[in-house]
Amino acid sequence: METLPQIANSIREVAALAQTSVSTVSRVLNQSGYVRAEVRERIERVITATGFVPSAVAKGLQRRQSSLVGVVIPRIDSYSISAMVAGISTVLEAAGYSLLLAHTDNQVERELKALQLFKEQRVNGVLLLAAELGEQHRQAFSLLKLPLVVLGQDASGLGISCVLQDECAASTTLTQALLARGHRRIGYIGVNDRDIQVGGERKRGYQTALSAAGIAADSTLITAGGFDFASAALAVDQLMALPQPPTALLAATDRLAIGAISRLAEKGLHVPDNISVVGMGDIDIAAMMQPRLSTVHYDYQASGSRAAHLLLAQLKQEITATSKAVMPFTIKMRDSTRQLAP
Amino acid sequence: METLPQIANSIREVAALAQTSVSTVSRVLNQSGYVRAEVRERIERVITATGFVPSAVAKGLQRRQSSLVGVVIPRIDSYSISAMVAGISTVLEAAGYSLLLAHTDNQVERELKALQLFKEQRVNGVLLLAAELGEQHRQAFSLLKLPLVVLGQDASGLGISCVLQDECAASTTLTQALLARGHRRIGYIGVNDRDIQVGGERKRGYQTALSAAGIAADSTLITAGGFDFASAALAVDQLMALPQPPTALLAATDRLAIGAISRLAEKGLHVPDNISVVGMGDIDIAAMMQPRLSTVHYDYQASGSRAAHLLLAQLKQEITATSKAVMPFTIKMRDSTRQLAP
DNA sequence: CTGAAAGCGCTTACAG
DNA sequence: CTGAAAGCGCTTACAG
After folding, report:
1. How high is the pLDDT of residue A4?
2. Per the UniProt record, which residue ranges are transmembrane (chains A, B) (predicted)?
3. Span CA (B16) to C1' (D3), Å
């Protein structure tokens, strides 16, 4: 056999080198059909000698199967999103899919463009980590005609499977933990309601717990802003300037809680001695901070893999009904909260 | 015109509906060549009516151009990596490329598999965020034959362009800041040397500063482990059990610093009153912690976009020489360090 | 067990 | 300005 480790760029060149047909090469490449051992060996030798790598593009064109899944994320520099993507990635890669990732910087426009791009790339399915779901999404989804699973927002009303955290119950329980510690005036540091889950539901849970405890609603105790530290600082300024300031703060996310604690420190207020603070999400650092942050734990990685599994089921056409998975939570009361003296 | 908003799955069907040829449809799709306004309009109407989306797969097969860039990351749930990917993504998407993401969970084997997969998908280039570079990588790179840029490790010796932080200088400067505050016994919480940049270079910088200050090397002050909180706790236990314990701790990463501070607190040691601690990396939370963490700031997002630009230049074949970009750093002395009483 | 041929959905000279 | 035809690199019946 000639030692020509030249490069083969196509199955056809491999076939020529191995003195056989493309059909046969295709068979050994896909381990399908019968191939005489001798021929198979000859082909395999050529493949390793040339370092030939078959084109998934050509294969995909034929099979109408790209083995690609598009993942849309609003931002990547977020603990919860990273964790979800890790979960997604693990499941999907194990199933033989590759991830096409589009980050949209929270711009709906870029989100829609990403969806378009995914269609062009003929992805087999789409996973959308959503912060907001508006009319534009509704339209885009109906045009998508592709297996789709939404993470983080409730899309079941649109006939789309989704994976959610049990936001309202979580914040109710968390608020109750604060109430149980004697707090009656609890400030709420929230985010915009357009994010129905993190904005709306978490706030609703807080309100539910208060009214169940017979505490009159006080809108001055409720703030809303972005996810950034500056928003947290603003909220703290506002809340602590109240005639009757809160004895505890519930922040819609751990980041906001951390920002709040930092701002409180700047004001000379110490957590938990002067004021209790809780967050939501249980980012990895929450348990390491000083004081260790009380919060609610979500298993974001499991949420990601759950969503991936839902998509996989759709891809295998095992599933037609739209399902809505609500993930469980755990309350983690640590050191940023304390019992109020009676 | 018939109102048949049926679906067109190929340029051929569009052509039939618009009563023209595929060549012409292709021309309007790509805005190439001349098309009579009337015909163009007819085609465009069919496209919008059918919601036709051309196949990037077929196009890629023809043009031998996938518009895909493969990105390999060891983990996704890391601040620095997320930030780099954000930088990469922004630049590459603006240039019309999509990201194919593979996370490898720090397993070389999966890294090599990802590279193989990228070749199959006929990506136009590869960006590798590397924690370690071994013999297997050397081999894989030589077989890759694809534009490649490495982030986080020095691959210039392999003839591969890369983007690095100025690790050694950064940790030297940081150590000097500690020395300037009167610390003589500085413990080092490091990671495995196989990670040449974060493991080796950061340690080397620390050692350089000490020896330049005329302080005898003391190997008992140097620990090595993983990137996790448990490793930090272990290192603290070890360092603080020394007959003459350190007055300051330099952790190779902010996470390790946070883990160390937490462990110190468990031991009843307060930062910075009882001991000073510095980290490296300046994760977003560093400036928000109590105490605010002293550290060195790297612009990870800029590093990512720098790497993306290097790759883009290769893709345009503007560049042939291998370049090595060393990114700048800034020392951020905050509240986790204090002047030692003389 | 193996090969010739059609076809996946595009692009691109090449004629007209 | 427009269309027929070849070809990108595979897969898949269909014959043999």
Report:
1. 53
2. none
3. 13
